[in-house]
Amino acid sequence: TYARNVLAWQAQSLLLAYPDDQLADRLTLALKVAATQPKTVGSPLVRFAEHAERTLLPELAADYVATFDHRKRCCLFLTYYAHGDTRKRGTALLSLKQTYAQAGWRVTDDELPDHLAVVLELSLIHI
Predict the structure, then answer these.
(1) What is the DSSP letter of 69?
(2) Of 67, 70, 88, 114, which has the fewest CB atoms closer than 10 Å, so is most exposed?
(3) Is the pLDDT of residue 66 over 90?
(4) Which residues contact 120 (CB under 8 A, 6 or more apart)?
């Protein structure tokens, strides 16, 4: 079950990325992972993948922005919930980055350490 959980979290992490030209590859992987999961985990992955496969990329991108960028309650940046857009959030981000470094994991400069996909990926390594 541990290996299945890891696969599910990785698939979910990949699907949280902004819809781009690599989405089809991520959807293919998600469907393969879904086939290895219990129904409660696999079914939502299949539903999303099937929806994304039949939806044009610009529409998916618009939905992504409307859901994650314009709704505070669906923000993918986890420190936003505790700190909003304040200086304290910057301090929290730095602390997260340092914690990741202590765990031997480096977050690239093009991603924030509190993004849900990043947190999921780190959890895969250190569970």
Answers:
(1) I
(2) 70
(3) yes
(4) 9, 10, 12, 13, 16
